[in-house]
Amino acid sequence: MSEKLHITTERLTIRNLKPNDLEQFHEYRSNPDVTRFQGFDVMTLKESEEFIISMNRKSYGNPGEWVQYGIENNESKKLIGDCAIRLLEEDQVVAEIGITISPLHQKNGFAKEVMIGILKFLFDEKGIRRVVELTDVQNIASVKLLKSCGFRQEGHFIDNRYFKGELCSEYQFAMLKEEWDKIKQDLMDKF
Ligand SMILES: CC(C)(COP(=O)(O)OP(=O)(O)OC[C@H]1O[C@@H](n2cnc3c(N)ncnc32)[C@H](O)[C@@H]1OP(=O)(O)O)[C@@H](O)C(=O)NCCC(=O)NCCS
Known about the structure:
Structural class: alpha+beta
Radius of gyration: 16 Å
Helix content: 25-40%
Strand content: 25-35%
Number of helices: 6
CATH superfamily: Gcn5-related N-acetyltransferase (GNAT)
Bound molecules: coenzyme A
Number of domains: 1
């Protein structure tokens, strides 16, 4: 059943994007360094606005659909990034995820906090069996984040597709529910 997603962590809240996120959202989504390794290109202000409106209506749990959620700082109440979740259409207990943190807020452990929050939600509340993320091998920050959260690298696809005009290689990282159960306490204690 579909529902509005709302995840709260110590410093952050993950919830639907809202029209008043526009200024912060557009600031990083119009930055080519941020979109370099992502399925998105830089957005115009109008595109950012339309994107937020389209995502504002979406719910968690519709198989096959990527939904991008806002990440709000609990103290400032401002958007600091966004994250995406998609349940596979062919196997709805497998989820794909992605995280973006504005360069103004990177390297503060926010992506890791979001990742732990999402994993807890998907595995412990939603009965998800496997979480997957594909990342460009050159995306050092993403690779570090995934390893630091206990993901297992299970694939290295060499020159497997053209992306933004370049031939790119990708790593596939994954985590299974039983792997999460083994590491979650340690991950949460150390964070
Ligand atoms: C990847 C990204 C989300 C990381 O966000 P962040 O909030 O800066 O990450 P964190 O502060 O939580 O750091 C998590 C780990 O990654 C490491 N890390 C983060 N950025 C790094 C970088 N540029 N180089 C090396 N390591 C980095 C941190 O040191 C930390 O490691 P640790 O837990 O072992 O100490 C952010 O760089 C980003 O938004 N990039 C652009 C969008 C993107 O490509 N997203 C991924 C694909 S969907």
